[in-house]
């Protein structure tokens, strides 16, 4: 099943970036002759599957394995490790090799670091006395396009590394990735950054431009006009709230991973109980449809899940309505052709089309019909998924949690919240859920029996969260009230079906992060400087020099600029520490508003939600 | 006509004209080539001269010590040094492609000099056999050399960069039994052979052998095609040998032989066909033999230089002084004591213009300019005559100008070209410009002070890049810089080399002053590597200057390693941190870690946040004991405590350790130690208590496991322990754990209700509910029953819920819509609640109806 995202309509040529990565990987692997065993670290294999088909890899004569402590079982004499430069992997690799040596198995070992070699990792290989046995190379994969407008740097641990361990490697990585983008699309002239990490990234980016300049003559006029960098730390409230968009909810409950969700097959209406199946979201190439493509000479590759594209950013309440509407129209279409359907019920789909043709329909009508038929699987798929989601959303506990989040965000009556959280602990609800609320509680207000319920090993989590400033032991005055009021984060009476404000994604709460982006684009940050000072970390607004004078104006006000030459300007919004689907939806909403003259590209260290973010803070003990 | 004088100097060899313009009057004084060994580099390179110690020469007013002198092609002295090497006579001396002077003495030692007559260390030897047997002859090519020993063995260095000598196969007849001496040697360069390895041609007796590393094969040549058909193939080889002299053509395809009976024979190496066979008047072998480009072969005896072509009578030139032939790709330079000449075939374009009586378009164009200058109307007439082939004429003039050494004539030809160009519509106009540019460069390097007499063809083959590198090697930096600028090439190479040379040469200039001088020039070139210059400064023993220079390096990846190598660890750490590249910071950390004692290392990184954090991250993964030392030495006791706690945890996780003896002893000890350490700081009382409780819990769990004989307690949480107890119906144990850890009543109620629901002990649950009024209300009971899907049980407790909203919701959850609605109606905000119930109940129904028609399709 295709997992590679469709990038046809991207405002930037992201496809070229992906193709470059593909080529680099294939060339690296082709360098080693003969059959070989490719051992990928599991997280990385997800990222790699977004840029290259597994079948393509297999064509290169590869056996695929996931890296773990266990020795690699293979007949191949060449073992290629494709790993991110993480210290813990080195021990695995070293132990594999030592294991082979003890069994007198002779193999060639290759370690390909993603995105680059690391002194610390190689040091470990050295100390384990295997460094001279391996060939070390690098696969410079700094980013993976997830969607037409979303790029991920695949740094899931970025937030924890920076805040808890003080390991800011990810900042360099982010700057490097942006610099790579600049090599393709030109030096971005305007930079706005908020948060310690963001300002640092802007600084490193400037250094890189000095050290390894993008030749402005080669690239021409920059395609990206503005770069907005935001630390997750600036807005920890938003990810802790439950996302209420369709895609956001899917992620909250079913965990979208690499563009697909995994559900029990009974959810999708299959008869086989208890079997897990993967449901892709962004792209869908179904066998039945492909056969029809061949039959009618349509282009296979343009198949995108249009229905999902339409609904993903909507508030889930609305999605249900939309699905109902669509289904009803379709049902009517169905009745129209019901006679045909009855007639050839037993025929496979291909012959069905043929049969319809026999019944004297014109070809164009036929194609229309097939197109509708094509949307049928999508229709059923999303109805199944939506229904599955409602089983969660209709639960009392879910509703009261939303209530609680709302109360916390509005920063009213803490006692209820505290009691509620306490009860969750008593019930031993999942720890991440509790911590999410606790963090929310701590940020919006001021900061147990936690360890008793969940075990003492979690003392580290608390310690980590405290180091990251997410939990605070002492009473201290929160700025949340002021921030909330000034930036109008609580929007009363939002009509989720006809939204006028980004607040629809959280049914009434406008994500702080996106408000900041909105401000940055529309009027710059100067008017809200006071508020910015209340949020963690410094901020920065600069213009970078060294371009042939570009006609851009100071701010991206209205339609006056960018469209002058018929081209919309592009704003790159980078989230350091992760972004949620709901926030992405909110940004898309901003860009889609009438009279807006810019496209948004969102780049993030990782797509997150409250739970996954908190999980990164949980040290895996032992 | 004015052109006559030009062609008058040409000589005709069969149907081809040759010319031999004088390029320089040699500037040197008292150099007699016949007294000296001389090595001349091709491509107009330098000339090395040293008194020949194999000849008896009379010493005039000079030292008995021999001097190696290096001149440029115009005879300007570049450098000199006294030669006092041991190892016997100098056997061979030649310039390599990168203009290193390679000289080999009798015992096989190789001394290398640069163009500044500085000895390049280390000296290399050709090997033990050469040392023992003595080298008698050597043949060089651009990048290698073959030596012949007295014992008749051949040794070869095929790459001057690696300088690795190896032995070639033995040649039959040269072995010790026969004691034959080869009459001559020649080399086919690796780039022209099939195998890619060097091939040595050795003439022994009547045979010629091709020798490489593996074998020696004798070669035979075919008879010349045509009349001499009575001769047998086999005999012909014998007729050629013994060969007295041989050379390989510049492209490696032909071999010229001078036979015992005074014949010059040229044969194809692959085809074995004979192309030229000319009998000379004397059988005395020539002193020198050389190819003139690919056109003809030159043979030199005292005072007589003879040029043989494929057809026709040879041309003779006479000299009253000794000469040296320097083969080039397109001709031969002839060096004498007084002058340097360049013998080449007259290029076609030049011939078409200057040949006597030529009426070619180019000749007419050149003539037209002459008329035009003299304001004669004939100019127009000429132009009209050649209108149709004007562009061809312009092209010829440009080409001819390029081949000219004489600046006046270059100018005349270029003027003719641009004159013609004005009347020609379809000519590429930048050709004139391009040639002008090339000629300016050529004229500049041909200046006697520089002394590189390149022809345009040589220049194109050499490439401007190599020319620049030769100029900077000769320390003509300014000219190299100008040329780079003029040709739009990267100036970095030149400036970099200059800077390094400047540092070497300015040993006595103070650092600050020298830095100023260097920076002044280094700033000319953006992106230049200051680190490379600094490295050089460091190698020259000027560490302080290096540190000052590296400060200016913008690329931290180059700057940091260098700072480390010059011992500037602090600065390296600062720079690495500033760069944001954590990999560089690690590089510095490991460097210091390795070099300094631990305490010093700790002190160094303690103050540097990023370095410290990275070290901790690394050590956490790989060097935990060392990390403990670090935390202890820096007073971070609580961090040590965390480590101990984690250690105790790891011990439990490790399946290897859990076999055998009960581990709770050491684990508990670690936890207690951790708790102790935590308690030393005020801020960690929470952790201290937690660790203490953890230890206590573990102890209790072990006791429980022992008493129940079930290994299911260790490492579960307090809640889970209590739950397990209840599930095992061990209420006493549960109560004990509860009291030990002061579990609150509320928590106890939630815990116990759910635990009882898990084992479906509804009776006990009901009993529990009646023990006293639950501090949590009846919600835990309701939820536990609903979760277990026991409506009947739930109904026992729902009515007891005091909150009406809660009650309504509970009814709704077990599907009792009416009761739910009733409860909702009683509640205050009943309307909203009712609405929500309606929604939940209806929504599922909607999906079901929607799904129906599609089921068969997907």
Topology:
The complex is a heterodimer of chains A (622) and B (858).
Chain A: H1 14-30, E1 36-40, H2 42-49, H3 54-59, E2 62-66, E3 78-84, H4 87-102, E4 108-114, H5 119-127, E5 134-138, E6 144-147, E7 150-152, H6 158-165, H7 169-185, E8 190-194, H8 196-211, H9 216-219, E9 224-231, H10 237-240, H11 246-254, E10 260-264, E11 276-280, H12 287-296, H13 306-311, H14 316-336, H15 338-343, H16 349-358, H17 363-393, H18 396-410, H19 414-426, H20 431-444, H21 450-454, H22 459-467, H23 480-486, H24 512-522, H25 529-534, E12 539-543, E13 569-576, H26 581-592, E14 598-604, H27 610-617
Chain B: H1 4-8, E1 11-13, E2 16-19, E3 22-25, E4 36-40, E5 47-51, E6 66-71, E7 77-83, E8 90-95, E9 101-105, E10 109-113, E11 119-125, H2 128-133, E12 135-141, E13 144-149, E14 154-157, E15 165-167, E16 184-188, E17 199-204, E18 207-211, E19 216-218, H3 233-240, E20 243-248, E21 254-259, E22 263-268, E23 274-279, E24 288-292, E25 296-301, E26 304-308, E27 315-318, E28 323-328, E29 331-336, E30 339-345, H4 348-354, H5 361-373, H6 378-385, H7 390-403, H8 407-423, H9 430-446, H10 456-462, H11 464-473, H12 477-487, H13 492-505, H14 511-522, H15 530-539, H16 543-550, H17 556-565, H18 569-579, H19 582-595, H20 598-606, H21 609-622, H22 624-633, H23 637-653, H24 655-658, H25 664-679, H26 685-708, H27 718-727, H28 731-740, H29 745-758, H30 762-771, H31 779-787, H32 791-797, H33 804-813, H34 817-826, H35 830-851
Antiparallel strand pairs in B: 1-2, 2-30, 3-30, 4-5, 5-6, 6-7, 8-9, 9-10, 10-11, 12-13, 13-14, 14-15, 16-17, 17-18, 18-19, 20-21, 21-22, 22-23, 24-25, 25-26, 26-27, 28-29, 29-30
């Amino acid at each position: 099943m295709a997992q590679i995202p469709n990038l046809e309509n991207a405002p930037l040529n992201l496809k070229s970036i992906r193709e470059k990565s593909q080529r680099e990987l294939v060339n690296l692997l082709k360098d080693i002759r003969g059959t070989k065993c490719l051992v990928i670290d599991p997280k990385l294999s997800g990222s790699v599957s977004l840029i290259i088909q597994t079948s393509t890899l297999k064509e290169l004569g590869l056996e695929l394995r996931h890296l773990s402590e266990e020795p690699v079982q293979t007949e191949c004499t060449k073992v290629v490790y494709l790993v991110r430069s993480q210290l813990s992997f080195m021990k695995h690799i070293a132990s594999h090799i030592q294991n082979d040596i003890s069994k007198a198995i002779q193999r060639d070992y290759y370690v390909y670091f993603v995105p680059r070699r690391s002194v610390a990792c190689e040091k470990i290989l050295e100390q384990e006395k295997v460094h001279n046995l391996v060939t070390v190379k690098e696969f410079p994969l700094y980013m993976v396009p997830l969607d037409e407008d979303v790029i991920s740097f695949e740094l899931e641990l970025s937030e924890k590394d920076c805040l808890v361990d003080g390991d800011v490697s990810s900042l360099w990585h982010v700057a490097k990735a942006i610099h790579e983008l600049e090599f393709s699309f030109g030096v971005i002239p305007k930079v706005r950054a908020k948060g310690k990490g963001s300002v640092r990234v802007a600084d490193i980016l400037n250094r890189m431009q000095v050290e390894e300049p993008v030749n402005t003559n080669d690239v021409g006029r920059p395609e990206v006009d503005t770069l907005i960098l935001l630390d997750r730390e600036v807005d920890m409230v938003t990810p802790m709230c439950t996302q209420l968009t369709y895609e956001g909810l899917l992620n909250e409950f079913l965990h979208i991973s690499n563009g697909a969700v995994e559900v029990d097959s009974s959810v999708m209406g299959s008869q086989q109980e208890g079997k897990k199946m993967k449901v892709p979201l962004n792209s869908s190439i179904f066998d039945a449809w492909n056969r029809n493509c061949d039959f009618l000479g349509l282009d296979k590759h343009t198949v995108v899940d249009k229905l999902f594209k339409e609904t993903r950013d909507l508030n889930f309440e609305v999605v249900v309505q939309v699905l109902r509407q669509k289904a009803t129209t379709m049902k009517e279409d169905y009745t129209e052709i019901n006679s045909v359907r009855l007639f050839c019920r037993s025929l496979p789909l291909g012959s069905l089309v043929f049969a319809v043709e026999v019944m004297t329909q014109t070809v164009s009508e036929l194609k229309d019909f097939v197109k509708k038929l094509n949307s049928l699987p999508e229709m059923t798929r999303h109805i199944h998924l939506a229904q599955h989601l409602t089983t969660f959303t209709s639960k009392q506990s879910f509703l009261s949690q939303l209530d609680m989040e709302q109360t916390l965000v509005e920063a009213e009556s803490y006692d209820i919240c505290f009691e509620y959280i306490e009860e969750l602990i008593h019930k031993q609800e999942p720890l991440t859920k509790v911590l999410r609320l606790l963090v929310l509680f701590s940020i919006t207000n001021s900061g147990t029996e936690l360890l008793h319920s969940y075990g003492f090993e979690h003392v580290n989590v608390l310690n980590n969260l405290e180091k990251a400033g997410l939990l605070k032991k002492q009473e201290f005055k929160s700025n949340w009230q002021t921030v909330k009021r000034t930036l109008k984060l609580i929007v009363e009476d939002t009509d989720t079906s006809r939204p006028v404000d980004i607040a629809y994604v959280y049914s009434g709460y406008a994500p702080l992060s996106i408000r900041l982006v909105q401000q940055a684009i529309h009027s710059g940050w100067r008017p809200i400087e006071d508020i910015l000072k209340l949020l963690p970390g410094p901020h920065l607004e600069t213009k970078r020099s060294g371009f042939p004078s570009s006609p851009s104006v100071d701010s991206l006000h209205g339609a006056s600029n960018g469209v002058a030459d018929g081209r919309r300007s592009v704003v790159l919004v980078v989230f350091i520490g992760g972004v949620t689907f709901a926030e992405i939806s909110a940004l898309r909403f901003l860009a889609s508003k009438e009279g807006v003259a810019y496209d948004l590209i969102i780049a993030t260290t990782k797509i997150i939600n409250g739970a996954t973010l908190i999980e990164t803070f949980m040290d895996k003990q032992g | 006509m004015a052109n006559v004088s030009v062609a008058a100097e040409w000589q005709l060899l069969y149907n081809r004209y040759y010319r031999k313009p004088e390029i320089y009057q040699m500037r040197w004084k008292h150099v007699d080539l016949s007294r000296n060994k001389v090595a001349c580099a091709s491509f107009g390179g330098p000339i090395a001269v040293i008194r020949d110690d194999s000849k008896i020469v009379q010493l005039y007013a000079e030292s008995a010590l021999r001097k190696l002198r290096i001149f440029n092609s115009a005879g300007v002295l570049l450098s000199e040094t006294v030669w006092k090497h041991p190892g016997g006579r100098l056997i061979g001396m030649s310039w390599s492609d990168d203009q290193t002077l390679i000289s080999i003495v009798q015992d096989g030692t190789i001394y290398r000099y640069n163009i500044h007559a500085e000895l390049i260390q280390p000296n290399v030897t050709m090997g033990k056999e050469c040392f023992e047997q003595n080298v008698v002859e050597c043949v060089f090519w651009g990048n290698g050399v073959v030596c012949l020993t007295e014992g008749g063995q051949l040794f070869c260095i095929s790459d001057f960069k690696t300088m690795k000598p190896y032995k070639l196969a033995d040649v039959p007849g040269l072995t010790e039994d026969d004691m034959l001496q080869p009459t001559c040697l020649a080399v086919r360069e690796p780039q022209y052979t099939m195998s890619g390895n060097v091939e040595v041609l050795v003439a022994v007796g009547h045979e010629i052998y091709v020798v490489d590393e593996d074998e020696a094969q004798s070669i035979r040549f075919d008879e010349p095609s045509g009349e001499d058909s009575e001769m047998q193939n086999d005999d012909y080889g014998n007729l050629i040998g013994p060969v007295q002299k041989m050379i390989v053509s510049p492209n490696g395809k032909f071999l010229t032989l001078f036979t015992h009976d005074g014949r010059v024979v040229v044969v194809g190496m692959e085809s074995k066909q004979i192309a030229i066979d000319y009998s000379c008047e004397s059988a005395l072998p020539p002193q020198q033999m050389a190819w003139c480009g690919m056109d003809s072969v030159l043979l030199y005896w005292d005072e007589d230089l003879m040029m043989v072509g494929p057809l026709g009578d040879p041309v003779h030139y006479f000299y009253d002084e000794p000469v040296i032939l320097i083969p080039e790709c397109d001709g031969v330079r002839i060096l004498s004591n007084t002058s340097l000449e360049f013998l080449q075939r007259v290029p076609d374009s030049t011939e078409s213009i200057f040949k006597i009586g030529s009426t070619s378009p180019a000749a007419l164009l050149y003539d037209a300019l002459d008329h035009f200058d003299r304001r004669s109307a004939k100019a127009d007439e000429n132009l009209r005559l050649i209108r149709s082939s004007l562009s061809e004429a312009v092209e010829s003039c440009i080409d001819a100008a390029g081949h000219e050494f004489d600046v006046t004539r270059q100018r005349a030809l270029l003027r003719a070209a641009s004159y013609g160009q004005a009347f020609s519509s379809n000519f590429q106009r930048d050709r004139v410009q391009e040639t002008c540019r090339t000629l300016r460069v050529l004229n500049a390097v041909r200046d006697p002070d520089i002394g590189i007499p390149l022809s345009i063809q040589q220049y194109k083959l050499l490439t401007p890049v190599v020319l620049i590198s030769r100029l900077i090697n000769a320390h003509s930096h300014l000219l190299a810089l100008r040329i780079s600028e003029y040709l739009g090439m990267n100036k970095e190479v030149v400036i970099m080399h200059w800077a390094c040379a400047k540092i070497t040469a300015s040993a006595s200039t103070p650092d600050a002053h020298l830095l100023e001088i260097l920076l002044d020039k280094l700033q000319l070139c953006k992106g230049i590597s200051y680190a490379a210059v600094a490295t050089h400064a460091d190698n020259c023993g000027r560490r302080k200057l290096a540190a000052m220079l590296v400060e200016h390096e913008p690329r931290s990846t180059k700057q940091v390693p260098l700072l480390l190598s010059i011992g500037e660890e602090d600065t390296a750490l600062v720079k690495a941190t500033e760069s944001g590249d954590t990999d560089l910071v690690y590089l510095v950390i490991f460097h210091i870690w390795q070099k300094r004692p631990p305490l010093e290392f700790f002190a160094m990184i303690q103050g540097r946040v990023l370095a410290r954090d990275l070290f901790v991250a690394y050590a956490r993964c790989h060097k935990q004991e060392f990390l403990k030392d670090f935390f202890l030495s820096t007073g971070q006791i609580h961090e040590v405590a965390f480590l101990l706690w984690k250690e105790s945890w790891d011990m439990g996780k490790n399946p290897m350790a859990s076999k055998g003896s009960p581990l709770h002893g050491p684990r508990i000890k670690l936890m207690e130690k951790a708790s102790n350490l935590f308690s030393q700081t005020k801020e960690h009382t929470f952790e201290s208590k937690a660790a203490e409780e953890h230890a206590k819990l573990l102890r209790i769990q072990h006791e429980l496991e022992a008493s129940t004989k079930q290994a299911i307690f260790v490492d579960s949480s307090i809640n889970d322990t209590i739950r397990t107890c209840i599930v095992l119906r061990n209420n006493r144990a549960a109560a004990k754990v509860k009291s030990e850890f002061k579990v609150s009543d509320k928590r106890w109620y939630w815990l116990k209700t759910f635990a009882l629901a898990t084992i479906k002990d509804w009776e006990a649950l009901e009993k529990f509910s009646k023990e006293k009024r639950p501090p949590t209300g009846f919600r835990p009971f309701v939820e536990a029953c609903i979760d277990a899907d026991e409506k009947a049980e739930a109904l026992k407790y729902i009515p007891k819920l005091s909150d009406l909203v809660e009650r309504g919701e509970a009814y709704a959850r077990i599907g009792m819509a009416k009761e739910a609605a009733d409860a909702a109606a009683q509640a205050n905000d009943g309307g909203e609640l009712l609405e929500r119930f309606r929604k939940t109940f209806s929504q599922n129904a909607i999906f079901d109806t929607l799904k129906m028609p599609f089921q068969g399709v997907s």
